[in-house]
Each structure stands twice: as structure tokens, then as C-alpha cells.
Amino acid sequence: MFLKTLADFLRTHAEAKSYDRLVVLAPPQALGDLRRQLPDSVRALVMSEEPRDLTPLPNEEIPKHLDGILAV
Prior knowledge:
Blueprint (H helix, E strand, L loop, with lengths): L1 H14 L6 E5 L1 H10 L2 H4 L2 E6 L21
Parallel strand pairs: 1-2
Helix pairs in contact: 1-2
């Protein structure tokens, strides 16, 4: 249910031109499930996918795990 809600949110905001690129980081199973939920219009904006779970990390540690993905 959460991933469907997220996919709908991303679709709505893609249609509104709220973003023009998307990086998706999620645990492998969730990434696969989300990928199946995303419409083509959102998938076309995905510039990178990373099968990683960063939720256990403190917020201040997350940027160093994004090297090579984003210019942080």
C-alpha cells in the first residue's frame, strides 16, 4: 500500500513538473516492488536506482553514502 501511494505521489508531481530527475534508493525487495508500480512517465525520469536501505543510518551520515549518485 505504501509503495502504491508513493508511486501515485511521484506520478502526480512528475505530471506537475515538480521534478525532472529522480534517484530511487530502497531495499532490494521494495525497489523491485516500487519499480512495478511506477508509470512509464515516472520511470523515464529515474536517473539512478540503488538497492540500499539507508533507514538505519543517522541523518547526518546519509550524504556520505550518496557519493557517486548525487552532487551533495
